[in-house]
Design a protein that fits this description.
The protein is α+β, with helices and mostly antiparallel strands. It has two domains: 3-8 and 97-277, C8orf32 fold; 13-94 and 279-307, Immunoglobulin-like (Sandwich). It has helices at residues 3-7, 100-103, 106-109, 122-125, 141-148, 157-171, 185-191, 196-209, and strands at 13-36, 46-56, 61-66, 72-78, 82-95, 173-174, 193-194, 214-221, 238-246, 250-255, 260-261, 266-272, 281-287, 292-302. Strand 3 and strand 4 form a beta hairpin. The radius of gyration is 20 Å and the shape is globular.
């Protein structure tokens, strides 16, 4: 991975994001509670022109809010008897290229040790939550040893982060279904296999093992079809990556799954300390059903500025 390639600004992009989740059950569900993180964040480099989440059957109770990390979340309660629950989120989002000034700032180019929040007193206090390990712990001897190959004394922070990104990309194999949400980072390290959520969590554990603040970010990545083939609607997927904190309360996000810094092809939805803080959809149902099925369809389509409604 070469840092200059990631620092070159291109142009802003506009996307129509469609995320459909369908649960089906083999018996009637009498009550369904849910919480979802499906609305993209409004950020300095990302403008949400429109966003909507629909639930079928129509919820009896519905509310939206903002959580402790500033993410938009929605709660719903369906009391109508049903054997299928459909959650559809649609949004139109403008995303700008990454800030070259931040990537070339003294904080990014300085020694990584200077970005440890614990050494910065009041300035780093707000980031200390993102330095702490999870419970049960994710920082194991294997994680510490892997991180030690990257975070050598005095190395520039941005150089170490891009190296970590590339190492995970080359050392691990992407294989859908090889892990579950409950799979520990140590297991992913041992198997050298996983999906984007796993690779983000490996990176986060490595950063925290050396005292740096790191957060888990969820969203979408705009992808292009293979040469000569048309894009298949709904064939995309939700995505995840990591971010590291810099003095000045800035964050640099990076994508180990694709060996790159996060750029204008990434649509950010939510962030927290770990996946458990920001799952796309989570809930509880009351039913005698013994079996259920989940089908997810995601599409991230570039659109022209004339294709979107004015705001």
């Amino acid at each position: 991975m070469t840092f200059p390639d990631n620092a070159v600004a291109t142009r802003s992009r506009r996307y129509r994001v469609f995320h459909r989740t369908c649960y089906t059950y083999d018996d009637v569900v009498s009550s369904s509670y849910g919480r979802c993180y499906l609305t993209p964040r409004e950020l300095p480099h990302q403008h949400v022109r429109s966003a909507e989440v629909r639930i079928e059957p129509e919820p009896d109770d519905w509310s939206t809010g903002v959580d402790v990390y500033g993410n938009s979340d929605s709660y719903f309660h369906v009391r109508t008897h049903h054997d299928k629950l459909l959650v559809t989120a649609t949004s139109i989002v403008d995303v700008d290229p990454p800030d070259q000034g931040l990537l070339l700032s003294p904080a990014a180019l300085g020694p990584w040790e200077q970005a440890r929040p614990a050494a910065l007193g009041t300035e780093g206090a707000g980031a200390m939550e993102f330095v702490l390990d999870l419970c049960p712990p994710e920082i194991t001897p294997a994680v510490t040893a892997y991180a030690a190959q990257v975070f050598t004394p005095g190395r520039p922070l941005i150089e170490a982060v891009t190296d970590l990104t590339s190492r995970i990309f080359h050392d691990f194999t992407y294989k859908s279904g090889s892990t579950a949400i409950s799979t520990k980072v140590d297991t992913v390290l041992a198997r050298r296999m996983g999906v984007c959520q796993d690779f983000a969590r490996v990176a986060i554990a490595c950063l925290r093992s050396v005292g740096l603040a790191a957060r888990y970010e969820s969203g979408y990545l705009a992808t292009d079809p293979p040469p000569g083939r048309e894009k298949i609607f709904g064939a995309d997927a939700s995505h995840a990556w990591a971010a590291v904190w810099l003095p000045g309360n800035h964050w640099i996000a990076f994508d180990p799954t694709n060996d790159k810094l996060v750029d204008e092809r990434h649509v950010t939805v939510a962030w927290g300390r770990d996946y458990d803080d920001v799952p796309p959809l989570r809930g509880v149902i009351y039913t005698e059903s013994k079996k259920s099925r989940i089908d997810v369809s995601v599409d991230v389509s570039p659109i022209g500025t004339d294709d979107a409604p004015a705001t």
